[in-house]
């Protein structure tokens, strides 16, 4: 996992990955830990994972971003390397109010990676640039 989360969150995600690799499911105690650490983001993030809403977008140079199809049908771009999402909830609850460690979209990225549930999409450098620039245009 990336070193942008508190150690307890990192350890929980590692335990989820280990348990899922061994048994193909996440035990109740780890689900409770997920709810305790990530609060209201946990259940919606698990729903996104179940719906296979997370896509890892990579280019030939190795640049990677994640796109998460939200429940509203909007596609959000997440960067696990710097722990950032383009959704309004991330801006408001994580950045402005510091009420949560992350939004459901980033948590879904971490969980999808841990459970091997990411869709994979390889695009050209130009296509990845367009995806990233489209997000900037949406914000402006």
Automatic annotation (TrEMBL):
One Pfam assignment: SWIM
Domain of life according to the entry: Eukaryota
Keywords attached to this entry: Metal-binding, Zinc, Zinc-finger
GO MF assignments: zinc ion binding
GO annotation terms (biological process): double-strand break repair via homologous recombination
Gene Ontology CC annotation, any one: Shu complex
SWIM-type domain: residues covered: 76-114
UniProt cross-references to InterPro entries, sorted A to Z: Znf_SWIM (IPR007527)
Name of the protein in question: ZSWM7 protein
Gene for this chain: Zswim7
């Amino acid at each position: 996992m990336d070193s942008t989360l508190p150690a307890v969150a990192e350890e929980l995600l590692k335990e989820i990955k280990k348990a899922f690799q061994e048994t193909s499911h996440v035990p109740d105690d780890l689900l409770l830990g997920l709810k305790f650490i990530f609060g209201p983001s946990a259940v919606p993030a698990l729903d996104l994972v179940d719906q296979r809403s997370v896509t890892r977008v990579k280019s030939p140079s190795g640049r990677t971003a994640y796109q998460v199809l939200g429940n509203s049908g909007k596609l959000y771009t997440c960067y696990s390397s710097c722990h950032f999402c383009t959704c309004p909830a991330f801006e408001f609850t994580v950045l402005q109010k510091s009420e949560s460690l992350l939004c459901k979209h980033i948590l879904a990225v971490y969980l999808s990676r841990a459970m091997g549930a990411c869709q994979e999409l390889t695009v050209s450098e130009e296509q990845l640039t367009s995806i990233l620039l489209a997000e900037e245009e949406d914000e402006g």
